TrEMBL record:
Molecular function (Gene Ontology), one example: large ribosomal subunit rRNA binding
A Pfam family it matches: Ribosomal_L14
Stored HAMAP family: Ribosomal_uL14 (MF_01367)
Organism: Candidatus Yanofskybacteria bacterium RIFCSPLOWO2_01_FULL_44_22
GO CC, alphabetical: cytosolic large ribosomal subunit
Family: Belongs to the universal ribosomal protein uL14 family.
Subunit-structure text: Part of the 50S ribosomal subunit. Forms a cluster with proteins L3 and L19. In the 70S ribosome, L14 and L19 interact and together make contacts with the 16S rRNA in bridges B5 and B8.
Function: Binds to 23S rRNA. Forms part of two intersubunit bridges in the 70S ribosome.
Keywords associated with the record: Ribonucleoprotein, Ribosomal protein, RNA-binding, rRNA-binding
Official protein name in the record: Large ribosomal subunit protein uL14
Length: 121
């Protein structure tokens, strides 16, 4: 569950390391984002000489959250960190995805992210 001003990790190789959430897309009064939701982020920490620079404003999809997420079968899934993958339209901007990715991401229409991931949980 991410909200405005949340600082989250980036789970791809675009060059951004930490980003800050400043808008949750999907309605004018929408406050929180869960797995598979798209958010607007600003890059806070970035590696030098990469595709993404500090202060860039981008769209990203939430791929991990610390708050337990209830699945349709009644089980819960929870991660150690909050993480996003930076998007270029509907596709990921980077070529690699780090860390585990839940299968809900594929169900939400981000099949490319699931196929690039090391592990789908």
């Amino acid at each position: 569950m991410l909200q405005l001003r949340s600082i989250v990790n980036v789970a791809d190789n675009t060059g951004a390391k930490k980003v800050g959430v400043f808008k949750v897309l999907g309605g004018s009064k929408r406050r929180y984002a869960e797995l598979g939701d798209i958010v607007v982020v600003s890059v806070k920490v970035a590696e030098p000489r990469k595709a993404v620079k500090k202060k860039d404003v981008l769209r990203a999809v939430v791929v991990r959250q610390r708050k337990a997420f209830r699945r349709k079968d009644g089980t819960y899934i929870r991660f150690d960190d909050n993480a996003v993958v930076i998007l270029d339209g509907k596709e990921p901007k980077g070529g690699r995805i780090f860390g585990p990715i839940p299968r809900e991401i594929k169900e939400r229409g981000f099949a490319t992210i699931a196929s690039l991931a090391e592990e789908v949980v």
